[in-house]
Amino acid sequence: MNAQKLSERLAAVASFVPTGSTVADIGSDHAYLPCYLIHQKIATHAIAGEVVKGPYESARSQVQQEGLTNQVTVRLADGLQAITPEDQVDTITIAGMGGPLIASILAKTPSALTNVTRLILQPNIHARAIREWAMHNGFAILDEMIMEEDDKIYEVIVLQRGEMTLTEKQLLFGPLLSERKAPAFIKKWQGELAQWHKILEAIAQAENTTAMIEKRKELQYKIEMAEAILS
């Protein structure tokens, strides 16, 4: 992977970036995605934000090598603090983190979202946290994608300004993903279902404390939802 050819998951993220946008890529690592968006004339300007010094230096070096220092700004900052009002960022990408971490980044600096009309988020795990955050913060799901790359399954959630209400099933499985049922979706939830059955079996004989009863109920509920979707 490099700034000319992205991995499949980052290419999926890039595919949802509107042409002519100003993008902030948070947790940019080597800044491959911002550089790619400029090279492909998708974005007019990009911010590459990094909170860790090593990846920040890697991103700076990459941008210099690509000859894009006038179009890609690299900043060492915590999450959305990499964005200033003067940047006029309208699109934010965050890829390669857990869903709860992505949600916490978005929640920590809400003022940075004032001019943002699109969020393209690629959680490695627990995508539900992002859907919950969106539902309570004026964003709605525009699209969702799921794919397998190098034996790992990734989801991409695309949000735009709007209101939405999701059911428990939609929060967990994704409203669009659960309708489309792509092969990667089936594989992911068959694996989760098998794991839930194992856990339920393992705790079947555990003491009937209030917490344990609730745990069994929760697992049984998830199992029933998954079996209904996969049937």
From TrEMBL:
Keyword terms: Methyltransferase, Transferase
Protein name: SAM-dependent methyltransferase
Transferase in keyword set: yes
Signal peptide feature range: none
Lineage: Bacteria, Bacillati, Bacillota, Bacilli, Bacillales
SUPFAM superfamilies on file: S-adenosyl-L-methionine-dependent methyltransferases
Biological process per Gene Ontology, one example term: methylation
UniProt xrefs under Pfam families: TrmK
Gene3D superfamilies to which the protein is assigned, alphabetical: 1.10.287.1890, Vaccinia Virus protein VP39
MF term (GO), any: tRNA (adenine(22)-N1)-methyltransferase activity
